[in-house]
Amino acid sequence: MLFLPLLYVLAQYTAVVIAINASSLSWYDPQLSALHATLKEEVFARRSYFYVGGKYINGTSGWVITDQMYVEKLEPQVVLHKYPLVFITGGFQIATNWLNTPDDRAGWASYFLSQGYVVYLADHVKRGRSPWAMASSALLNTTFTDLAFVQDYFIAGQRTKLWPQAVLHTQWPGTAEVGDPTFDQFYASQIQTPVDDGPYSQTIIDAYSALLDKIGASVLVSHSQGGPYGWGIGDSRPNLVKAIIALEPEGPPFENQVQKTGPARPYGITTAPITYSPAVNLTADPNAFTKVRVNSTDPDFANCLMQAEPAKQLPNLQKFPILMLTTEASYHAFYDHCTYSYLVQAGVNVEWLQLKDIGIHGNAHFVFMEKNNMEVVPLLDMWIRATVK
Ligand SMILES: *[C@@H]1O[C@H](CO)[C@@H](O)[C@H](O)[C@H]1NC(C)=O
Ligand SMILES: *[C@@H]1O[C@H](CO)[C@@H](O)[C@H](O)[C@H]1NC(C)=O
Ligand SMILES: *[C@@H]1O[C@H](CO)[C@@H](O)[C@H](O)[C@H]1NC(C)=O
Ligand SMILES: *[C@@H]1O[C@H](CO)[C@@H](O)[C@H](O)[C@H]1NC(C)=O
Ligand SMILES: *[C@@H]1O[C@H](CO)[C@@H](O)[C@H](O)[C@H]1NC(C)=O
């Protein structure tokens, strides 16, 4: 199975040529996929929980602990894999994302338990069961997903068609309207997020780094806003991250597209500083990156901001394999090629799985809770078995 290279025309600059080589899915076995896709029920697991990270500070009401993170460990009756999976949720989400779906089918955590993986599920710092201990600007200044945002971008993009691929969306379970029980369950699970992602993202990276220090080498599975957190964790603990599966990681590089426009992710794929070679410190040198606009010949795909060659490399992210997954109808289908190309250019060992290329159609950004979630998750399992040694 081959990925078609995307064709680009360069802007008037000619300094950069981005080689997007066809990526071969040697690990993909359609028969195994069919076999695995039968999980209907929750599976038995031993559950325990603990907190990681955080620090004691002298707050307005005396000493308190802050920035600790709630982690739940689910352990199957028979453990078959050396490395556990650590799930990293996206914006406005908590660990319930990976449990049963909003329409009460088995979720991806259950699938991996059924396959003998230990699974760790965390509520990011200052979300869900991870307390907001301190009055601080980050505490007071939060953002929330309103109803229209959730429908337009997450689960019913086919109605408002805010990006070209949105019309292909078919896999959300239910009507995506208020009053539909599945929709109400999903919307009720959305949670606040601090507005300023810079300092906040570093506290999350620190908490997950503390988690890896405690549990040892693991495979990370990130989604959306969790994507940059995953890159940061991999950068901070390259010897404890065995692989990253990045489900539609937040992007594209250096700027927003579709939902918003304008600069974002000043370190390319992250808001928090990350290790480049040669080193980049934007506080000391705000112009450390030389960027070029690389335009797509196809209006269905975004124009990208890339590094000019020679591109600075991401040496820590080069130390383990990465699988990026993009669905057919998500807003990420419009621009994830920019993130993939950026990682390739930075020397990272990344494969890009576009579900449409293997005949899985109609998914949007919350693929793990959509109707065919059990058709998609075996692909991740297959990749891990083939790639993580
Ligand atoms: C490339 O795209 C940008 C917008 O993304 C546009 O401003 C610019 O004019 C385009 N350049 C060319 C050569 O088409
Ligand atoms: C693409 O493949 C060619 C030939 O195998 C190789 O020289 C080049 O480094 C590859 N480029 C990337 C970005 O992997
Ligand atoms: C802690 O803060 C309180 C009031 O904010 C202050 O009176 C006290 O000296 C502080 N203690 C330490 C050890 O800094
Ligand atoms: C909250 O954050 C936004 C965006 O950074 C900013 O414009 C606004 O002034 C902040 N509000 C408060 C109360 O800090
Ligand atoms: C980045 O540069 C600033 C300003 O020069 C400096 O204070 C800071 O320590 C630097 N950060 C790192 C990680 O070197």
Report what the structure shows.
The longest helix is centred in the middle third of the chain and has 19 residues, at 197-215. This protein has ten helices and 15 strands. It has helices spanning 30-36, 108-114, 137-140, 147-155, 157-160, 181-188, 197-215, 226-236, 332-345, 373-387, and strands at residues 8-10, 45-59, 62-76, 85-88, 119-123, 142-143, 193-194, 218-223, 241-247, 255-256, 262-263, 291-296, 304-307, 322-326, 350-354. Strands 2-3-5-4-8-9-14-15 form an eight-stranded mixed sheet, sandwiched between helices. It has a three-stranded antiparallel sheet with strand order 1-12-13, covered by helices on one side. The protein has a two-stranded antiparallel ribbon with strand order 6-7. The chain has one domain: Rossmann fold (3-Layer(aba) Sandwich), CATH 3.40.50.1820. It starts with 7 loop residues before the first strand and ends with a helix. Helix 1 (30-36) packs across helix 10 (373-387). It has 389 residues and is α/β, with parallel strands linked by helices. Bound molecules: 2-acetamido-2-deoxy-beta-D-glucopyranose (5 copies). One 2-acetamido-2-deoxy-beta-D-glucopyranose is lined by residues 11-12, 293, 295, 303. The site of one 2-acetamido-2-deoxy-beta-D-glucopyranose has 5 residues, from strand 12. Keywords: Signal. Residues 1-19 form the signal peptide. This is Putative secreted lipase.
